[in-house]
Amino acid sequence: MRTSRLEAFSDGVLAIIITIMVLELHAPDGKDLGALLHTAGIGLLSYLLSFVYVGIYWANHHHMFQLTRLVTGGVLWANLALLFCLSLFPFTTQWVDATLWARTPVVVYGLNLLAAAIAYYILQTVIIRTQGKDSPLRTAIGRDLKGKVSPAFYIVGCVAALVGGGGTGARPGMWVAVACYVAVAAMWVIPDRRIETAIAVELVPEHDQSGEPGDPSGEREHS
């Protein structure tokens, strides 16, 4: 099976996820900037963070499947697991917004981010295994340092929220958790050229010995 149907389905699901999240935003009660900030200020920030995460997954998912030539049953199910985790974003985003980033919703939001990261890693691993030891995706991602560091940030954020995110006053744990979630998003927003470089190499046509594209034997027909 080619990747086009899987990519189209995934794009549609991600578009619906973003649509649901924006529909959860409430219109201001008044008509001035103060009313906007009072009614939807935190909601806009929550939506922005989740939108960035969905955008990051969409971009990396697109790049990953540029180096995927065959979709197996394992890839299909791993992709569905990723979409399931991402489909929970509207729910967890709305919960942290409605509770003004209370401890339990912040922890659940972090667990949602962690689950999505693990699902993406599983999908990536399944694709690499189907491609064999010379997998172009494996070569492109290298050590995948960002992929290994991100879950650690999510775990630190969840623990911080659990330890110091309760109460009605200052909640340092909550701010540490939010900082961890934002830090991971900022880390992934920075363009990563590894897969793009690998895609460019894959698309370069074969050249003959004289540097001209065409006959791989190096012999050219003279007129």
Describe the structure.
The protein is an all-alpha fold. It has one domain. The protein has nine helices and no strands. The chain has helices at residues 4-23, 33-66, 73-87, 89-98, 103-131, 136-141, 145-164, 172-189, 194-203. The longest helix is centred in the first third of the chain and has 34 residues, at 33-66. The two termini are 44 Å apart. The relative contact order is 0.11.
SSE order and pairing:
Layout lengths: L3 H20 L9 H34 L6 H15 L1 H10 L4 H29 L4 H6 L3 H20 L7 H18 L4 H10 L20
Give a short summary of the structure.
The protein is mainly α and 223 residues long.
In terms of structural class, how would the helical and strand content be classed? mainly alpha
State the share of residues found in helices, binned by percent.
over 70%
Tell me the strand percentage band: under 5%
Question: What average pLDDT do the residues reach?
Answer: 85
What is the general shape? globular
Radius of gyration: 22 Å
Q: Are there runs of 5+ residues with pLDDT below 50, and where?
A: 206-223
Continuous helix count: 9
The total number of structural domains is 1
What is the string of helix and strand elements?
HHHHHHHHH
Main sheet, how many strands, which sense, barrel? none
Per DSSP E runs of 2 or more residues, the count of β-strands stands at: 0
CA(first)-CA(last) distance: 44 Å
